[in-house]
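Tip: read the tokens left to right.
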């Protein structure tokens, strides 16, 4: 695996991993960092590391006290953001069972609300990775990251453009190193172009993963872009736009119930 974390990031993450282990709190890498570790370069720079921990807010204080004692500093106006001793910027979200049941975090000081829709999948599906010497950490798989990014985008499309960028990368590279690209499921689908097989497989896996609530977000996401295509809101001459349109159609086909494919 190509190393995507700097030595300073590795050292800082090893500290929080150790503290979470001592607290018996499940810590998982999410967001763009999880994609960097799973599929490589995203074509955009991201300086922060996104983490979530399976703690409710009353338990979260034990972790934040330990981090403060270890030299971590909380950003003045962002309750979820921390700067570690080696200057790693970490966005840390508590997502214990009660918070996930409620579906959101209400930060005590700012009263700012963050959605936790889909976060049950994070802890159920995360896999342990060894991204660097001295660091073993759980990482959410790409299909879950895409689901969370679809939810974030649909909840606030104007502020979450970077999530759409990352979704586009995964559409083109999902399961790129897997034999699944040559599976019966792909050939039986009779896709118009093998280049959209990645997006089709992503749709299949999203369908298998999604709860009814999750599926609502995915359907709204697909309908949003399929409607744009019908209304010709896309640049017909732009190659990347054409590729995205084809991938969205393949994603929709994979996500559809078997009887509708």
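Filled-in amino acids:
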């Amino acid at each position: 695996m190509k190393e995507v974390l700097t030595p300073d990031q590795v050292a800082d993450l090893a500290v929080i991993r150790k503290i979470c282990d001592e607290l018996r709190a499940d810590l998982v890498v999410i967001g763009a960092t999880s994609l960097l570790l799973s599929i490589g370069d995203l074509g955009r720079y991201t300086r922060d590391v996104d983490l979530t921990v399976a703690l409710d807010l009353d338990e979260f204080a034990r972790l934040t006290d330990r981090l403060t004692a270890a030299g971590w500093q909380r950003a003045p106006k962002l309750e979820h953001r921390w700067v570690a001793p080696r200057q790693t910027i970490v966005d840390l979200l508590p997502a214990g069972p009660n918070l996930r049941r409620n579906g959101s975090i209400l930060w005590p000081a700012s009263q700012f609300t963050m959605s936790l829709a889909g976060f049950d999948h994070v802890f159920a599906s995360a896999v342990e990775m060894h991204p660097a010497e001295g660091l073993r950490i759980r990482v959410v798989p790409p299909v879950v990251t895409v689901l969370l990014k679809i939810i974030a985008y649909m909840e606030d499309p104007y502020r979450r453009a970077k999530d759409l960028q990352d979704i586009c990368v995964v559409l083109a590279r999902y399961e790129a190193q897997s034999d699944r690209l040559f599976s019966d499921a792909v050939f039986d689908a009779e896709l118009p172009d093998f280049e959209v097989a990645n997006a089709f497989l992503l749709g299949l896996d999203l369908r298998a993963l999604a709860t009814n609530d999750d599926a609502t977000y995915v359907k709204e996401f697909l309908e949003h872009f399929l409607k744009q295509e019908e209304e010709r809101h896309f640049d017909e001459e732009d190659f990347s736009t054409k590729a995205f349109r084809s991938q969205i159609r393949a994603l929709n086909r994979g996500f559809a119930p078997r009887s509708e494919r």
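The longest strand covers residues 48-53. The longest helix spans residues 212-230.
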